[in-house]
Description:
The protein is largely without helices or strands. The protein has one helix at about 60-75; strands at about 10-15, 20-25, 35-40, 55. It has a two-stranded antiparallel ribbon.
Amino acid sequence: GLWDYHRELKDFVSIDTFSKEPIIHGNVGPQWNRYNTAAANSKQSFNTTTGGCFDFTVDAQQFKQGIRDANERFKLGYPDDPLDWSIGGFNVELEGTNHAAAGMHFYGLEITFE
């Protein structure tokens, strides 16, 4: 979604420093679709402070791609079949540069698994 002004917008995989588990990060928009697909009515990831609604899906192939990318980059051995996984939580983070004023407001949050 929203991204720090001084960082490049890109899809990427990283490792959580606490849990040592992979993080698969996908921005929302047509130029970033490795790990998700933006709905037609969705706002795109951006480097500004305006609000909007983010609406996206993650299909089985995008999920598999994320796991494969994490396995390759970090020499992990996770299975890439979505049926081998469950969702244990949902995380939202707010980051910014020094002296930045920021906040989040959620309404109508819906998470659907199919």
